[in-house]
Specification:
With about 300 residues, the protein is mainly β. It has a single domain, classed as Porin (Beta Barrel). Helix content is about 10%, strand content about 65%. The chain contains 3 helices and 15 strands. It has a 15-stranded antiparallel β-sheet that branches. The longest helix is centred in the first third of the chain and has 13 residues, at about 5-15. InterPro entries: DUF6268 (IPR046235). This is DUF6268 domain-containing protein.
């Protein structure tokens, strides 16, 4: 999973595109935890402060006679992480990382219950002190989705990334289950996993429990004179309270736990892309830590 970071972030942005007219701004604080190697030995410690902004800009939208959406849109993402580490953790992990991208996406209905999402995007994935042309990574995806009922959709397709030099195409799966009512539940798997449950107390207040949320950051950097790729996967849970300022705009605060935050640096070669899916001997990770987060959401 570590070696798919840019493509994972790219796919995650498309989920919001299907709803359109959305935006968010968030700050996430990960507390201190031990940094360990693959043998479980402590080799440092660290914390992290992460700021994210996302926005969807619809370009063209229309619905057919069956009220199915066909649309074009632009998705903009910016993710800035500041890592405060010590000992080996400070040597292996960049101090500041910028992940930002712009994506042109298209959704259209096909025959019957089928629909398609396709997109192309480009982004900067780099330490803030080393942004070069090689920091630009391109991604693409095509997903064919079948709507089983109003709550469940399944799909398949392919993803394209040049994170490790030559373009690589990989199969992708899509699962989206949403149960609506007084209690809402969502299970989403599209290159990452997100499981949440929520309930509205009234028109203003909402409580959300995120049981599992996986995402990550990546950076193209230079170590020992060679171009390499840094990647980190984060597994998180939290409980948050949202206050709706308007029916579309809300402010939230939350807290929880970061169960694991991996760290890996690998040569930017095509064989490393596949090696990273299975190898664990060269991986490091931060242990569990406390998490505090807050932000604004529009259109959610």
């Amino acid at each position: 999973m570590d070696m798919k970071k840019p493509l994972m972030l790219f796919i995650m942005s498309l989920i919001a595109f299907t709803a359109l007219s959305q935006g968010s701004l968030s700050i996430d604080r990960f507390g201190y935890s031990d940094f360990r190697n693959s043998d479980g030995e402590r080799v440092g410690s660290g914390s992290m402060l992460r700021t994210k902004a996302e926005m969807t800009l619809p370009i063209k939208m229309k619905r057919d006679e069956a009220n199915r959406l066909s649309a074009w849109g632009i998705r903009i993402n910016a993710d800035y992480s500041r890592l405060n580490n010590s000992e080996t953790a400070a040597m292996l992990n960049p101090h500041e990382i910028l992940n930002t991208s712009i994506t042109l996406a298209h959704i259209r209905p096909l025959a019957g219950r089928w629909s398609m999402i396709a997109a192309l995007g480009v982004g900067i994935y780099a330490p803030t002190n080393y942004i070069r042309w090689k920091s630009l990574l391109g991604n693409g995806i095509a997903l064919f989705i079948y709507k089983i009922n109003d709550e469940l959709s399944l799909g398949f397709g392919g993803g394209l990334t040049n994170s490790y030099g030559p373009p690589v195409v990989m199969p992708m799966a899509y699962v989206n289950w949403q149960h609506k009512g007084r209690y809402q539940f969502t299970v989403n798997f599209t290159g990452h996993l997100n499981v949440t449950g929520s309930t509205k107390l009234d028109d203003r207040w909402k409580i959300t429990c995120t049981a599992v949320d996986m995402d990550g950051i990546t950076a193209v950097l230079v170590r020992d004179g060679k171009t390499k790729v840094y990647s980190s996967t984060m597994i998180k849970s939290d409980l948050s309270v949202s206050y709706y300022i308007t029916p579309q705009l809300s402010f939230y605060v939350g807290g929880g736990c970061v169960w694991r935050r991996s760290s890996r640096i690998a040569p930017r070669r095509i064989e490393e892309f596949f090696k990273g899916m299975f190898a664990s001997s060269d991986k490091y990770s931060f242990g569990p830590s406390m998490r505090l987060n807050a932000g604004f959401r529009y259109g959610f």
